[in-house]
Amino acid sequence: MLKFMIVDDHSIVREGLIKLLMAGFPTAKFYEAGSASELMTVNNNLKLDLVILDINLPGRNGLEILKEFKSEHPKLPVVIFSLYPEEQYAIRAIKAGASAYLSKSTPSQEIIEIVKKVLDGGVHLTPLLSNLISEELRGVSTDHPHNTLSDREHKVFLLIASGKNITSIGAELSLSVKTISVYRANILKKMNLKNNAEITHYAFKNGLVE
């Protein structure tokens, strides 16, 4: 019997995804987690076959969670299931050990086929993601300053670009205002930008926020 763990802080998303997957895996057993801490306490004896992980969980950066989880469960495939477009996180997710990066707008049948591929040991790359990786390998992506950011800096960068202030970002990431200010300073320096307005302009120009 296949065992899947669905990790998302919204119960309606977990329920919808389980219902979707049951169409393709009617005999599978599903477990749910609403936070990173719940995921990290997974007992090895549970012998999961797949984890489907939302990248935006409260208090923790999804990529950090992914890296930590894969370090403890290196052979267990993880599929990222996210609202964010591939341009924002897909390459980072694959580098961190994800077997696939799926948008929440991906058609149901396609999700089932991708999960089957991952369960067989494959890695799913969409045409867009394949192109992004190809560009990076050829050095093209070095022209994009946002690729020089760390995962945490990248998260703060996107939150600033979406219009959030330092205080609200700190609350969302469970970090102090001082720490967020340091990240912001690093972002401005690495990307040769002057202020939040330039961060927002850059993000929109490069299709990193909608």
Please explain how this structure is put together.
With 210 residues, the chain is α/β, with parallel strands linked by helices. The protein folds into 2 domains: 3-136, 3-Layer(aba) Sandwich (Rossmann fold), CATH 3.40.50.2300; 144-205, Arc Repressor Mutant, subunit A. It is built from 10 helices and 7 strands. The protein has a 5-stranded parallel beta sheet with strand order 2-1-3-6-7, with helices on both faces. The longest helix has 15 residues, at 177-191. The model has no long low-confidence stretch (mean pLDDT 87).
Largest sheet: 5 strands, parallel
Give the CATH topology of the largest domain: Rossmann fold
Order of helices and strands: EHEHEEEHEHEHHHHHH
Secondary structure: number of strands: 7
The name of the CATH architecture of the largest domain is 3-Layer(aba) Sandwich
Strand content: 5-15%
Please, what is the average pLDDT?
A: 87
Report the end-to-end length measured between terminal Cα atoms.
Answer: 41 Å
Going across the major beta sheet, what is the strand order? 2-1-3-6-7
Number of folding domains? 2
| Estimated helix fraction | 40-55%
| Radius of gyration computed on alpha carbons | 18 Å
Structural class: alpha/beta
Per DSSP, the total helix count is 10
What would you give as the CATH superfamily of the largest domain?
Response regulator
Contiguous uncertain segments of 5+ residues: none
Please identify the top-level CATH class of the largest domain. Alpha Beta
General shape: globular
